[in-house]
Inverse folding.
């Protein structure tokens, strides 16, 4: 029995899609979520900046005495995962691998589209992960930098968001992708719009549930599970307004959130501990 919580972090609200699935898959585990809303989006930042932010985010969660960290951010997974797994002696789960595997399982014509932040697309991490499994896959990639601020603003299904999606995805739709990876944990909040734009014949891949399954397997494998009688609780932190966070987060989690707390993440060390 291990009563320590699991730490989850993202550049903002998007990681709540992963948090929600983790809570379903691991109902006995306490969860701590940090959303770096004050510095979102990560996807338009340099790799060096993303790595710096990653260290600060992880170091904050380590102060909360977590037993595992889930990177609920594709940009961090693409830019920092290989680095931090070598620097920290704690299990770390990321989102790219599970998403790539789900895409390969679902594609019919081996033509997979990936939409993500500029940093994730620029890294090529999804295409590499997909081709490692399915070498003859055709990958169409598109950076969609405006999607994250639209989600953070709560504009999940309106004419402006749909117009942006049409602009971003028009060429990919014409190319005939049959599977589309939502390569940013913010993007599932745009599922209705993305589904309308791409059409019923395109399968949308939200890796959140697959990530939760992987975390649950790791918890079992490493004997880190909490008491089965324990009812897991979630604690929230943000680097921006706690009130704004609570107002928007309730729509992700489908429940009232009353314990969000603002922290000053810039004070955290930028080095591994």
């Amino acid at each position: 029995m291990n009563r320590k919580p699991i730490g989850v972090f993202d550049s903002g609200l998007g990681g709540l899609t992963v948090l929600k699935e983790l809570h379903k898959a691991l109902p006995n585990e306490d969860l701590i979520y940090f959303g770096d809303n004050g510095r979102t989006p990560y996807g338009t930042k340099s790799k060096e900046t993303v790595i710096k932010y990653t260290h600060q985010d992880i170091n904050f969660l380590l102060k909360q005495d977590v037993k595992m960290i889930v990177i609920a951010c594709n940009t961090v997974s693409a830019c920092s995962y290989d680095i931090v797994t070598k620097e920290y002696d704690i299990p770390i789960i990321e989102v790219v691998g599970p998403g790539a595997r789900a895409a390969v399982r679902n594609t019919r014509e081996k033509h997979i589209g990936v939409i993500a932040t500029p940093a994730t697309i620029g890294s090529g991490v999804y295409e590499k992960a997909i081709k490692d499994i399915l070498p003859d896959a055709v990958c169409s990639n598109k950076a969609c930098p405006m999607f994250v601020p639209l989600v953070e603003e709560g504009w999940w299904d309106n004419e402006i968001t749909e117009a942006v999606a049409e602009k971003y995805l028009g060429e990919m739709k014409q190319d005939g992708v049959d599977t589309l990876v939502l390569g940013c944990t913010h993007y599932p909040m745009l599922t209705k719009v993305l589904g309308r734009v791409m059409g019923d014949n395109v399968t949308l891949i939200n890796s959140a549930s697959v990530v939760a399954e992987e975390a649950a397997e790791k918890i079992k494998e490493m004997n880190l599970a909490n008491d089965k009688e324990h009812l897991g609780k979630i604690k929230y932190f943000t680097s921006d307004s706690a009130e704004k966070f609570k107002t928007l987060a309730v729509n992700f989690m489908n429940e009232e959130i009353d314990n969000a707390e603002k922290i000053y993440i810039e004070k955290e060390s930028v080095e591994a501990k």
Q: What stands out?
A: Strands lie at 6-10, 31-35, 68-71, 92-93, 111-116, 138-143, 179-182, 203-205, 234-238, 261-262. The chain has a mean pLDDT of 95. The first strand starts at residue 6 and ends at 10. The radius of gyration is 18 Å.
